[in-house]
Amino acid sequence: MKILVCISKTPDTTAKIAFTDNNTKFDVTGVQWIINPYDEWYALVRAIELKEKDAATIIHLITVGAADAEPIIRKALALGGDEAIRVNADSHDSFYNASQIAEVAKQGGYDLVLTGKETIDYNGSSIGGMVAELLDLPYVSLATKFELAGTKATITREIEGGEETNEVELPVVVSAQKGMAEARIPNMRGIMAARTKPLKVVEPIAVEALTAVAGFGLPPAKAGVKLVDPENVEELVRLLHEEAKAI
Q1: pLDDT digit of tens for each residue in the chain (247 aa)?
Q2: Distant-in-sequence, close-in-space partners of 228: CB < 8 Å, separation ≥ 6
Q3: What gap in Å lies between CA 75 and CA 90, rounded to an integer?
Q4: How many Å apart are CA 198 and CA 134, to the nearest integer?
Q5: 16, 35, 105, 122: least buried by Cβ within 10 Å?
Q6: What does the alpha-carbon distance between residue 5 and residue 121 come to, in Å, rounded to a whole number?
Q7: Alpha-carbon gap, residue 103 to 26, rounded angstroms
Q8: What angle do CA 239, 243, 247 make, to 5 degrees?
Q9: Taking a C-beta distance cutoff of 8 angstroms, is the pair 31, 59 a contact?
Q10: In Å, how far are 194, 217, 225, 239, 247 from 221, measured between CA atoms?
């Protein structure tokens, strides 16, 4: 079985958020970059678990990004990927990125495409569905469990108020979230091996981006807490009616 795992570079969750160029670009000064946690902890680790059950399984990693994404993809290789592909483009448009991933997937003949449910920077949750549509494959989102028997996958996903279990024949595209696998850290052997694992750079196909960033903005600062004397019920009621809705 061949698995393609989508990997995205995102800022560390503790990074200070600021913008430049009239708030049209993210300020990367001093930012620590990490593998998007949903891609790493759930999609990639579940692929590694599948390979541990079947040594014939091949795991390829793909990222759409400039050369500065290579340390991130190397870390993913250290965790357990066999080889990586970097599409040499830097775009924040979901359709553009999904088109690049789909093009590589078409050429690779993959049985399973795994991605995190979303990235922690843009939270778009759209790449998986777009890739599936472009490949004309079934898509299961928000997966918490993935089991494989031959060419049939049993996938559990979250729905409003409960869970849903799907059975689907491979190939399939799946987006993963918490519950799919347990996070791992690369060991020294994996880190050393990652240095020599293939990392292929391919040029992007011509695709017109459908969106552009008009501007970024930070959320408003939290309002201060107002303390009300427990005996002053009328004032509490007034605040709830007149001010609570605006907070």
Answers
A1: 999 999 999 999 888 889 999 998 889 888 999 999 999 999 999 999 999 999 999 999 999 999 999 999 999 999 999 999 999 999 989 999 999 999 999 999 999 999 999 999 888 899 999 999 999 999 999 999 999 999 999 999 988 889 999 999 999 999 999 999 988 888 888 899 898 999 999 999 999 999 988 899 888 887 778 888 888 998 889 888 887 765 4
A2: 235, 236, 239
A3: 19
A4: 26
A5: 16
A6: 19
A7: 28
A8: 130
A9: no
A10: 43, 12, 12, 20, 11
Residue-by-residue DSSP string for 71-107: HHHHHHHHHT-SEEEEE------HHHHHHHHHHHHHH
pLDDT recorded at residue 227: 87
DSSP 245: G
Distance CA 105, CA 125 (A): 19
- Cα separation, 46 vs 68, in Å, equals 26
R_g of the chain computed on alpha carbons:
21
> What are the sequence ranges of the domains in the chain?
2-219
Distance CA 122, CA 36 (A): 11
Residue 245, pLDDT score? 63
Backbone φ and ψ of 225, nearest 5°: -80, 135
**Helix or strand (DSSP H, E) at 194:** helix 188-194
- pLDDT of amino acid 122: 87
Handedness of CA 90, 96, 102, 106 (dihedral sign): negative
Kindly report the CATH class assigned to 2-219.
alpha beta
